[in-house]
6-phosphogluconolactonase (Neolecta irregularis), 252 residues
Amino acid sequence: MPTLYSFKQKDVLCSALGKYVKRASRESIKARGRFTIALSGGSLPSQLAQGIVEDESIEWDKWFVFFADERAVPLNDHDSNYRLAEDALFSKVPIPRDQIFAIDQNFLNDTQELADVYEKDLVRVFAAKETVKIPAFDCMLLGVGPDGHTCSLFPNHELLRENIAWVSPIEDSPKPPPRRITLTLTVVTHAHNIAFVAAGQSKQDILVKVLETPDEGLPASLVNQMGGDRVTWFVDDEASKLTVFPKKEFKL
Ligand SMILES: O=C(O)[C@H](O)[C@@H](O)[C@H](O)[C@H](O)COP(=O)(O)O
């Protein structure tokens, strides 16, 4: 069963998220010598940054950063998830540039190629598909949309059934921009630690659906079910106002 933490104030939420990520980083580096993390877009990069940028104990040189999803746009475009993360995080901490995996700008016109080339980056870091059937990220950081989408996995989309590719293209995202790439559900749910972050009134209804009526098969519910106790929700009291799902007290 997932863990739900709800915080009165957004800055306390961010600092708790930061503690969670720092612990995952410490434990992964101790166990495997590095920390592999996938970031989403939306408000997540700045929420994460608030909780970690000032921490001097983080071993940034051991971080390998991927994107849970990315829009097929130039890296300096306002729609780029990379740009969000660059502004909020990468520009402020010394993660080695060659350990930050952005999409390849040469393939923006062909989302299948864009996804395949990005998958090759995963293969380089996690080893070949023949050796590692599914890459296991140390930490997967996700947002959730009001429709229950997460990454670029949208409700009722055929992509939810993809179980061979690690990275898939999508050309018809209901949320603009339509052309994107995304980690597949298989990869997302295989991570050691999976965290959702949701804040504000606009998340009230979707939290009730995802946490209380998982049978609707929404992408965020599927991650919740498949990830089980590896899934942690960081929400604010505004977002969790309507849910009766049991909340835990945050202690780390
Ligand atoms: O690619 C996208 O369309 C966004 O990145 C999206 O997936 C985002 O993660 C959610 O909509 C939640 O965003 P917020 O947490 O900012 O509400």
Q: What stands out?
A: The helical segments are 10-32, 44-52, 81-90, 111-126, 185-188, 204-212, 219-227. The chain is about 30% helix and 15% strand. The mean pLDDT is 96. The longest strand covers residues 193-198.
